[in-house]
Every structure is written in C-alpha cells, then in structure tokens.
Amino acid sequence: MIADPLSDVQKADSKIHAEAATSQKKVDKYFDQAQDMLFEYGSVADERESLKSYNDYVAGLVADQEATMKSIQDDINGVDALRQGVVPLMFKMVDALEQFVALDLPFNTETRVERVQNLKNLLNSAEVTLAEKYRLILDAYSIEREYGSFVAVKTGQLELDGKEVLVDFFNLGRVALYAQSLDGKAAWMYNDETKGWDALDDSYLRELTKGIRIARKQGAPDLFSLPIPAAEAAQ
C-alpha cells in the first residue's frame, strides 16, 4: 500500500503544531515564573532599601542618644566638681559670718547668732538641697549688709557694774550703738575697743532722745548730734 504523502505532511504538521503549543506553554509558564520572581525580587529589594533607611535612621537616633547621654554625664561630672568646690566655700562663708557677728557691734545679737547657728545646722543636713543652702547663706549676708544702713531702737537689759538696767538701745547702722535709761537721765555709748559701755555726757541726753523718737517715728526727721567712736579714735 502506498502512503499518502499529503496525509503524512498533515500529520507531521499537526505534530509540529502540537509540540510548538506544548513548548509555548512551557515558555509561558517559565515567563510567568520569571515575572513572579522579578516582582518578588523587586519587592525584596524595596523592602531591603526600606530596612536600610530605617536602620540608618535608628543608628542616627542611637548616636544622638549616646551623645546626649555623654553630655548629661559630663554635666553630672561638672556638678560633682562644682559641689566639691562650693561645699567648702559655704562652710567658709558661714564661719566668716559667725566671726563677723562676734566682732560687730552687739545689736540684735540673739537673732543674728541664731541665724548663723541655723546655717551651720543646714550645712550638715541632707534634707536641704545644695542650691537652697547657698541661697540661705546669701540671704543672711544680705540681711547683715542691710544692718549697715538702718537706724533702729530696741528696749532691753543693759548690764552695768553687775546690775541690769532697762534701756533703749539705739544704733546708727554699724557706726555707733547707744543706750539710754528709760527715764532719759543717763546714757552710754558702746566702746568697740574695750567691749564695754562708756557713759555719755549729759549734754547728749536730749540729742539721743531726739534720735530715739525719730527712729520710732514719734518725731519729724531732723538733725541730731551724737559722738561717733571713729571720730573720737581719730583725735
């Protein structure tokens, strides 16, 4: 039997088309897989870049925090160094204030001595901050400075020859301190050199009374004449 050439060609062509279709399916499959892989790679690459940017951001934050922590530690170290210098200074300031009060004219003595003692107690207290201690010391110095320009009268006991005499103490800042009996018949001036009281001449009684009345705002401001220790020492 003779084969039909046309039929053979058709069969071959059909086979070729079938194989081509199969090959095309494989190509399409591989192409789709390649596309999926490409998309996945792109996603991974994008995620990697995002992670890299985030890591860079976090690294920057960490570096900034470390710098901040170092700065804080430097400040702490500086405070410790400052504390080491300030604490001895405060003790010296209180000691100097105590000596000053002891050597100064004896006015408001009880109040001033008590203020110094309170400062000494504060320095040894852990409940008061360093800043508050320093502020209170400066306040005490400020009060002492103001004493230098005030005129005041205070009634109290003056010890003379072993006897207590009720007097009005009158002080002109830190220039001079006087005492006058309440009946106005006797007066004294404090002698800083002898740490005692010298009797004033009777000629000064009216002048001292005038000064006392002015200090108590019982009289109009006016001039009055009293002896000054510094002036007498200069003679």
Structural summary, described in words:
By secondary structure, this protein is α+β, with helices and mostly antiparallel strands. Among the domains are: 80-145; 149-216, no CATH class. The protein has helices at residues 5-103, 109-123, 130-147, 205-215, 229-234; strands at residues 151-160, 163-172, 176-181, 187-191, 196-199. It has a five-stranded antiparallel β-sheet with strand order 1-2-3-4-5, with helices on one face. A hairpin with a 2-residue loop joins β1 and β2.
User: What is the rounded Rg?
Assistant: 50 Å
Can you count the beta strands? Answer: 5
Flag low-confidence runs.
none
Distance between the termini: 168 Å
- Enumerate how many helices there are, as a single number: 5
Shape: rod-shaped
Binned, the helix content reads 55-70%
Q: What is the beta-strand fraction? A: 5-15%
Largest sheet: 5 strands, antiparallel
What topology, given as strand order, has the largest sheet? 1-2-3-4-5
- What would the average pLDDT be, to the nearest integer? 82
Order of helices and strands, N to C? Answer: HHHEEEEEHH
* Structural class estimated from helices and strands: alpha+beta
Furnish the topology, listing elements before pairings.
Elements (H helix, E strand, L loop, with lengths): L4 H99 L5 H15 L6 H18 L3 E10 L2 E10 L3 E6 L5 E5 L4 E4 L5 H11 L13 H6 L1
Antiparallel strand pairs: 1-2, 2-3, 3-4, 4-5
Helix pairs in contact: 1-2, 1-3, 2-3
